[in-house]
Every structure is written in structure tokens, then in C-alpha cells.
Amino acid sequence: MNLSGPLLALLAFGIYATHDAVIKVLGGTYSPFQLIFFSTLFSFPLVTFMLMKDATPGNLRPVHPWWTLARTLSASLTGFTAFYAFSVLPLAQVYVLLFASPLLITLLSIPMLGERVGPHRLFAVVLGLIGVLVVLRPGATELTLGHIAGLTSAVGNAVASVIVRKIGKDERPVVLMLYPMASNFLIMGSLLAFVYVPMPIQHLGGLGLVSLLGFVAGLVLIAAYRNGDAAIVAPMQYSQIIWASLFGLFLFGESVDRATMIGAGIIILSGLYILFREVRLGARSQTPVLRTRSRGATAASFRISPILHRRSRREAAE
Hints:
Layout: H1 4-27, H2 32-51, H3 65-88, H4 91-98, H5 101-113, H6 119-136, H7 145-167, H8 173-195, H9 201-227, H10 230-233, H11 240-252, H12 258-281, H13 305-317
Helix pairs in contact: 1-3, 1-9, 1-11, 2-3, 2-8, 2-9, 3-7, 3-8, 4-7, 4-11, 4-12, 5-6, 5-7, 6-12, 8-13
């Protein structure tokens, strides 16, 4: 078995976890609006240089404007709510909530993609959602805005991911990638006047680091999928819970409680079952989870799915 794919994925998700830890450090001082605005600003040159390689003829007008608008708004909501959740909740708890996204992708694939989801995958989804309830412990602990933000980010990421699966064959990657970034820049910029706090050069450098880490992690994850099977690479996302526990303990003095660990185990097992179930179904499934390869909740970076979809289409044509 080629181990380069999963090893590269582990590296990519480690970089993403470092990206999130920096967000948490800065989130204690600055509004998510301000963090997203500047990190998006710093990301534009990196992503633009990468997109200069796109020789696909056409313009920046979307083929499916309403779906593109829905995806753009979903992606912007995903980024904002994730930044807020990372700022106010323990890292491990945020990741557990975000891990619900593959479960939601499976559900949304039924009405949006016409995917037929059998009782096995539906049971896994229900079990995973029970895991979310274990983490949230409604009635036993207070449900905060941070928890709501984490769940909202998971929902927004699922919606954006399924829309990419629906329109990705028709839209240029540059359209799918730049519209959400432009939306973040304009929306967060318009709100910046109400929340702006002067930033020392060290903190601006931290936001530049956030942008660089998100960009590098995206490139490494692309390399992981090019060198490994999706069924092996995709589960590596769950390694982020290990990084979150380590960063939380040593940087923020956070400990992972029993309910979070139990809920994480349930959600991860449910997600893995859905992944391997799609592998087993093969051509009988549209594999909405396996083909959704972007790591969500990275407001200032790019999603890798459009690039991988373009590469797959090019290889099929050849």
C-alpha cells in the first residue's frame, strides 16, 4: 500500500490544526470579522498566483449563479462561525462538532444530489448525531453561542460541499474558489468599522501566518489525494482531535472531558462507517462524502475540491 497519501494527509491536518490554534490565540483579542478580513486579504495573492495556472477558457460569470450564491454564502457563514467557535470553545470540542459535517453531507445528498442512502448509512448518521448530543449534553450544561457556532459551521460546510458536488462539473475552479473569498473580504470589511481594534505588527504577522498555513495545508492535502486512495486519505481528518488535545493542553490549559471523548468516538466511528460503506457500494453510490475532499472551516484559504474535480475531468478526457 502506498503510504505517502495518508502520511501527507496527516501532515496537512497537523498544519490545519496549527492554523486553528493561531486563530484561537488571536481570537481572545480580536473579533472574527477582523480576523477573517485580514487573513482573507493576505490569502488573495497566494491563491491568485495558484489560479494563474488555470488555462481553462472562460470568464468569471458563474454558470449556475443561484447555486454559486448559495455556496458562497454558506462558505462565508462556515468560516465566520468556525473562527468564533475556535475563539471561545476548547479546540477539541470544536473539532468534535465539525466532525458532524460528513454526517450532514450524507443527509443533504438525498434531496440535493438524488443520492439513495440506505438504512445502514442512515443508522450511522443517527448514531453520529447522538454523539453530538453526548458532547453538548443538553440540560446538563449550558448551550453557548460557541456551541451553536460550531454546529452552524458544520451545517454550512456540508451545504457548501454538496453544492460543489452538484455544480462542480460545470463551474470553473476559479469561480468556486474566488467568490467565497471575495464575499469574506467585502462582508467582513463592511463590518470592520464597528469592531476594529488596532493590531501590533506581531498580530498582523500572526494573521499572515494563518493565511500561509491554510494555503500550504491545502497544497499538501491535494498532494495527499493525488498519491493515495480517498478511502484511506479522508479518515486522516480525525487526527485533528489529537492535535487539538495537545495544543489545548500545552497552549491553553484545556483538558478534554469524558463526554467530549465519548461523543468524539461515536461521531468518528459513524463517519468512518459512512466512508467505508461508500467504498463498498462503489459505482452504485455517488459517494458524496468521499468526493467532498476539502477541509471546511478555513475562511481565508481555498477549498481543494474544485481543483481535484478539474484534475479528474482532465484525466477522464485524456
